[in-house]
């Protein structure tokens, strides 16, 4: 029963075909008749904007579905057209029961024949862009990395039209940390993930020399090899520069620029070619959410993510601190008990982590949320988790860990946008979709970020930064049709169509590795 | 008994006039005679490079002085010329006794009549530079802040010769944190400290709009007022721009550039004037230490810091994680029990903080340190703490807290260079001295950083980055004479002499606020 494709503003939004409730897109008066595709219903009582209305009779104890997911159970019999909220819906066993891998969805109907024009790398992976990375291994070499990368303006790259740019990757750590500890290992995984990213045609590592995060250890531990570019080095050796070896700032900048000049022809020597859509690695993110996020952009991204998975591709959900409250649904959807256990282990880690600082994870609907129509913690968390669509949870990744399976997976990251996306991109995501209600102007090189507005007024006000207006769902476009549009845009962008944030040159400052632990 | 000023390489270095040991500058053979100013002594046994030799008889139980500080007590009688190490020196009561404010040094002999040519600000404070700051309140506006600041190249500033530059201050936080929590408060203190810094003639705050670290709260809580510049705003109002209000990236960049264009004539309208040396706020830091740090550059900086304090100025020691082990000496030097208690409280906080991650603070001399001549934890920690000279500890500051007293004080920061210096500069330091053995190429706008090499080979290899060669101490310049040279350089740089890192354009990437707590 998908929502209508007509252009008349709908009274309710049916978020997923499996749902037995819809969300009021405007306040329905008691006795008001509202249209659904294939029929109509009458509101038994008033149902305010954002609140749920039953589409069918739901016997007591039976599940209530929203986003194609169980958000709780009827606490008494619910009639079609009745308002669904705290008085007749409760969390039930979702409170307690992980029910690991008990409701693993079947694989989606395959989507075949879809391709994008990408770069086939030497290791077989598919790139959507072709950048050169100048990676600063410690903050002490960050300025040098910037100067090296920025020495190449557009005129200097004019002879190399297949190179999208030279990007400095700088960060705030690399020393003042325990050697070999978690922070060190995480940072190395991030930096190696950028060096090896399929959107990186060649890279240069620049360090100071005396830092804890030694370049030699990074190269050895992460088995870094220069796959493309690097003519001046023995085949396969990474390009590294130490400022203390070179004799300081100016000499290292000079040497770095010379290395890149040698690298340019080789990195430029690539051509886009048709690649199956199954090689999309999609990162999904929301930032600056609003009351529309959970009923327009996020479920539409979920519909797009389901399509990526249906092609055989990968879709990554992150933001563990916002998954909290919906983990009981994801454990049910896991492909195995061990995948479910990995998620539970991460949720428990987060409880301990925030507890160390005297805080706690709490996604419970606030009085304002309840006023707005959100009944249960599962429903509230699903507003963000809806980006993961409805397919099975196939794996749970560490921060910046490269996927080794195909399908929908969780990566453990904070909800904080730049840290979350940096993790997914470092793990190999080659396209990002980013939903925003308030209007975030995010980008994250070397991956393109497609920004999806949740509402039309913000889309219009910030159209320079927004790629897609999911607010059209409130004017009658179905969630599924918007998902299709986003999926098409993912393939177009993967093929080289520039996103708004790429046109604006955003995406260097937003490289923010998540680093947990004491800075010493 | 200061070391000789002659150019002949000395056999031993007498670090401080009060010391009853010297450090071997080369290995002394058994029976070798070595010169001291005003006499000579004979080594009773072999004393290797870096090890200590007694200059006088030290009865059992009496203190051993190095850096003008007690590093332990003789565990048996020590003769002049005898090797002093674990066999005859132990930590004694320094293990246990804080002896708060028991040995407060008397005020140093005042130094009068010294001045620098600085900028007198409307609030009375003294600037050493005249920058404009574009402060990004959240990572989501960092790219915009960079684009606004970098729109002004040298040619565009040619008509405003009194402006040193326009600096973007960007960071990795500002959202994904608890509102009003420690991380939020600390970040606000840092950003307000930059906005109000005496080296900042005018500033612009740029945020996204929906971030936890709201601009309105920052402005209100920190009582930000635009002191200089800001013609387009009501008098006293800070200049703020929200990307969501402006309509996105491009419009905010345009608006930001326009605001700065209006600000330029007013910020340029300043002149340097003689200002008493007592208005120096000196930040001291070491990074990339080596075996020479504790015997050349750090004690020489201590001698310079003592001079700053003797003029009535402020000298800040930070790096709490490296103070650990010397805190018993600083508590003795405190001006009051309550100042000593503030330091102890911070040390205890650090133990708990690193303990949360299963680590511990441990500055105990390693077998390699002992091999190199370091006997006690107090002595090892003093190698870094020597930068604080020998005056009384007058206060202990929170991270980025502005000093409210004059004299030598500790600010609680990590040892990690960019985080440590960012705290001191945000607290109002107007000159930084930075010692390095391995060769750090640090800078931290808006304050100039004077980099001091610990040894001549590194100085020569990295002379593009190093301002002063304290390795000359190993060729016969006394620690005190080197301290005088550094003090002179502090006043010259405060008067506008550019440092090496300023010439190289270093100091934007190194703005690294220390943020403790969970990223959500
Ligand atoms: Ca987010
Ligand atoms: Ca299509
Ligand atoms: Ca940065
Ligand atoms: Ca340091
Ligand atoms: Ca002098």
SSE diagram, text form:
The structure is a homodimer of 520-residue chains.
Chain A: E1 12-13, E2 21-24, E3 33-36, E4 39-42, E5 52-54, E6 63-66, E7 69-74, E8 83-84, E9 89-90, E10 115-120, E11 126-127, E12 131-136, H1 142-150, E13 165-169, H2 182-195, E14 200-207, H3 215-221, E15 239-242, H4 243-246, H5 249-268, E16 273-276, E17 281-286, H6 297-310, E18 314-317, H7 320-323, H8 327-333, H9 337-356, H10 367-371, H11 377-385, E19 393-397, E20 407-411, H12 417-426, E21 431-436, E22 449-453, H13 456-461, E23 468-469, H14 479-494, H15 500-503
Parallel strand pairs in A: 12-13, 12-14, 14-15, 17-18, 17-21, 18-20, 19-20, 21-22, 22-23
Antiparallel strand pairs in A: 1-2, 2-5, 3-4, 5-8, 6-7, 7-9, 10-11, 10-16
Helix pairs in contact in A: 1-5, 2-12, 6-14, 8-9
The structure holds calcium ion (5 copies).
Residues 484, 488 of chain A line the site of one calcium ion.
Structural write-up:
Chains A, B: Its EC number is 4.2.1.42. Chains A, B: It is an enzyme of class 4 (lyase). Chain A is α/β, with parallel strands linked by helices and 520 residues long. Chain A has 3 domains: 12-95, Archaeosine Trna-guanine Transglycosylase, Chain: A, domain 4 (Roll), CATH 2.30.130; 131-268, Rossmann fold; 282-503, no CATH class. Helix content of chain A is 29%, strand content 19%. Chain A contains 15 helices and 23 strands. Chain A has helices at residues 142-150, 182-195, 215-221, 243-246, 249-268, 297-310, 320-323, 327-333, 337-356, 367-371, 377-385, 417-426, 456-461, 479-494, 500-503, and strands at residues 12-13, 21-24, 33-36, 39-42, 52-54, 63-66, 69-74, 83-84, 89-90, 115-120, 126-127, 131-136, 165-169, 200-207, 239-242, 273-276, 281-286, 314-317, 393-397, 407-411, 431-436, 449-453, 468-469. In chain A, the strands form 6 sheets. A 7-stranded parallel β-sheet of chain A has the order 19-20-18-17-21-22-23, with helices on both faces. A 4-stranded antiparallel β-sheet of chain A has the order 1-2-5-8, with no helix packed on it. In chain A, helix 2 (182-195) crosses helix 12 (417-426) and helix 8 packs antiparallel against helix 9. The first copy, chain A, is globular. At the A-B interface, helix 1, helix 5, helix 9 and helix 12 of A face helix 1, helix 5, helix 9 and helix 12 of B. Residues 285-287, 319, 415, 417, 420 of chain B line the site of one calcium ion.
């Amino acid at each position: 029963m998908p929502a209508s494709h007509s252009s008349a503003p709908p009274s309710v939004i049916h978020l997923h075909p499996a749902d037995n409730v819809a969300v009021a897109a405007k306040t329905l008066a008691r006795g008001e008749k509202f249209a659904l595709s294939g029929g109509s219903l009458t509101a038994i009582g008033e149902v305010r904007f954002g609140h749920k209305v039953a589409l069918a009779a739901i016997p007591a104890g039976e599940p209530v579905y929203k986003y194609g997911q169980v958000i709780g159970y009827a606490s008494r019999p619910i009639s079609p057209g009745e308002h669904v909220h705290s008085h007749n819906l409760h969390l039930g066993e979702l409170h307690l029961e992980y029910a690991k891998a008990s409701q693993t969805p079947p694989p989606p109907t395959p989507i075949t024949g879809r391709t994008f024009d990408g770069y086939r790398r030497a290791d077989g992976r598919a790139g959507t862009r072709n950048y050169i990375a100048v990676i600063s291994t410690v903050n002490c070499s960050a300025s040098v990395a910037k100067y090296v990368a920025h020495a190449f303006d557009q005129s200097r790259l004019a002879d190399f039209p297949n190179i999208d740019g030279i990007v400095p990757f700088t960060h705030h750590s690399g020393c003042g940390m325990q050697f070999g500890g978690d922070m060190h290992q995480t940072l190395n995984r991030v930096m190696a993930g950028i060096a090896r990213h399929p959107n990186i045609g060649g890279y240069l590592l620049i360090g100071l020399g005396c830092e804890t995060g030694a370049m030699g250890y990074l190269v050895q531990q992460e088995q870094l090899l220069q796959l493309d570019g690097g003519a001046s080095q023995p085949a396969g050796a990474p390009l590294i520069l130490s400022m203390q070896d070179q004799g300081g700032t100016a000499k290292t900048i000079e040497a770095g620029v010379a290395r890149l000049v040698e690298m340019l022809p080789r990195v430029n020597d690539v051509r886009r070619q048709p690649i199956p859509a199954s090689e999309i690695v999609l990162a999904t993110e929301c930032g600056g959410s609003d009351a529309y996020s959970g009923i327009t952009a996020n479920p539409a991204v979920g519909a797009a993510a389901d399509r990526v998975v249906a092609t055989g591709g990968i879709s990554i959900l992150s933001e563990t601190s916002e998954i909290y409250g919906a983990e009981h649904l994801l454990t049910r959807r896991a492909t195995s008990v061990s995948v479910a256990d990995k998620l539970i282990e991460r949720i428990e880690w987060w409880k301990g982590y925030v507890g160390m600082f005297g805080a706690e994870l709490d996604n419970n609907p606030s009085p304002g949320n309840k006023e707005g129509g959100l009944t249960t913690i599962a429903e509230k968390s699903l507003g963000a988790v809806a980006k993961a669509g409805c397919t099975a949870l196939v794996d749970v990744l560490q921060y910046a860990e490269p996927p080794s399976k195909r399908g929908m997976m969780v990566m453990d990251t904070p909800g904080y946008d730049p840290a979350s996306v940096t993790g997914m991109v470092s793990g190999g995501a080659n396209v990002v979709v980013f939903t925003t209600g308030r209007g975030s102007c995010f980008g994250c090189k070397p991956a393109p970020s497609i920004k999806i507005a949740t509402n039309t007024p913000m889309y219009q006000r910030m159209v320079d930064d927004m790629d897609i207006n999911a607010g059209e769902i409130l004017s009658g476009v179905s969630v599924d049709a918007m998902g299709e549009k986003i999926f098409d845009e993912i393939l177009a962008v993967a093929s080289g169509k520039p996103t708004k944030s790429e046109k604006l040159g955003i995406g260097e400052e937003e490289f923010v590795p998540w680093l947990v632990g004491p800075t010493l």
